[in-house]
Amino acid sequence: MAASELCFKSVAELAPLLKARKLSPVDLTRAFLDRIEAVNPKVNAFITITGEQALQQARKVERDIAAGRYRGPLHGVPYAPKDLFATKGIRTTNGSKATANWIPDHESTVTARLNHAGAILIGKLNLLEFAMGSGQSGLIGPARNPWDLNYSPSGSSSGSGAALAAGMVPLAMGSDTGGSIRGPAKSCGIVGLKPTYGRVSRFGVTTLSWTLDHAGPMARTVADVACMLQAIAGADPQDRTAAPSPISDYTKALSGNVKGVRIGVPTEYFFEHVHAETETALRRALSLLKDQGAVLVDVKVRNAALCGGASSIILGSESAAYHEKRLKEHGDLLEPLVRERLEVATFNSAVDYIKALRLRTILMEEMQRVFQTCDVLMLPAGNAAPKLDAEIVGTDAPSDPPSTPRPDSFNIANVTGIPAIVLPCGFTAGPPSLPLGIQFCAKPFDEATLFRVGHAYQSATDWHTHKPRLDA
């Protein structure tokens, strides 16, 4: 099998070959390292490449598998986390000059669990500075969208989305405070899951907002994302917010059967600013799921307009508190937009913060009501990626139509803590032809239903199999 072909195989395809010793984990790791060497100079997705360490680990994996010590489907498969996951002894930059030389003395729970499952760390991925930068500068400059290098992969998990789309790694980790996993998933044509708040430990993940942050898996298929969540989910004594809720066997959700699943479709608000081409792709995806037996249900999410304000105050206040010392002592090392956002947020009052938390309670109660009438809620995931030189996170050029639908399409899942997944559902006509994505949300700790719906959709479509023409 050609190395270039290997780099776009899913874990579901690679794992049986590794287990049966028909594919060497050393050869697989070398294939990805060669791909990174060839493609990363164009895409700028990796901050650090751990080639020698990865090959050393791959040799150990090869010996373990030969000795009958096979650990499961991730054993021998390379992965890369966003560079705000602490990796013991390996530089963790947060995409910032302020922490460019930080070498942690501890391992994040997520990377520790992936390592324990036998996955092979191959490097650390680019991001917006401290997960809140502009996407224009940062430590090594912006990651670029493999579908067109003049376009953004979206943030803040920009390198994670770009690396997956470019075939530089089969599995990645991101973080999501207001869409930072799901935005890159949409823009890069891959799959990204923001789990339920508390489903995945955040120990060793640099904080942006204590009550909005989520760590989640990213891959090219729903099945691979489910496999990753199986490995990383669960309680953690080092993170008191990591919930002890039971973990499903997510493989059982990958049945391809959605008969009787109720999909809620909003009748207002969330489709504002959605481009016609995007809405057509969303409606086509819903129609396909309906043909497979799903039931479409009209829903209204009351008070949705409160979400943006609540999210802004909570995120701003908590990030200003976390970065208070850094802002005072090393503010000159921060990207101007990051510094400005932190400085502005210091003026939020305690009254503002408490009001935002009360709004969160209202929205959580509303989502409980919504999920009494549907099993999953479909929300737009945004329009196609914007151009890099036009992107400033959170703004749009006054003369242009807004580049995204209501930001609450992402924020509402962070504010209320519900799980949400984005997967590819089409492409723009172009030129350039860019990916489009669809988002599904579910009630807390019901990631299994998201996998059920997402896998059924991917089983009936081929959007996730398309590859960017980086080698042309």
Describe this structure in words.
By secondary structure, the chain is an alpha/beta fold. The chain has one domain: Amidase signature (AS) domain (Amidase signature (AS) enzymes), CATH 3.90.1300. It has helices at residues 3-6, 11-19, 25-43, 51-66, 109-116, 158-165, 182-188, 222-232, 276-291, 307-322, 324-330, 336-345, 350-370, 408-416, 447-459; strands at residues 46-49, 78-81, 120-121, 123-125, 171-176, 191-194, 214-219, 262-266, 295-299, 376-380, 420-427, 435-442. The chain has a 10-stranded mixed sheet, with helices on both faces. Strand 11 and strand 12 form a beta hairpin. The longest helix is centred in the C-terminal third of the chain and has 21 residues, at 350-370. It starts with a helix and ends in a 13-residue tail after the last helix.
Features:
12 strands; alpha/beta; 15 helices
Give me a quick take on this structure.
The protein has 472 residues and is an alpha/beta fold. Helices cover 37% and strands 13% of the residues. The longest helix is centred in the last third of the chain and has 21 residues, at 350-370.
Distance between the termini: 21 Å
Total strand segments: 12
Structural class: alpha/beta
Dominant shape: globular
Low-confidence stretches: 393-403
Strand order in the largest sheet: 3-2-5-7-6-11-12-10-8-9
CATH topology-level fold name: Amidase signature (AS) enzymes
CATH superfamily placement: Amidase signature (AS) domain
Number of domains: 1
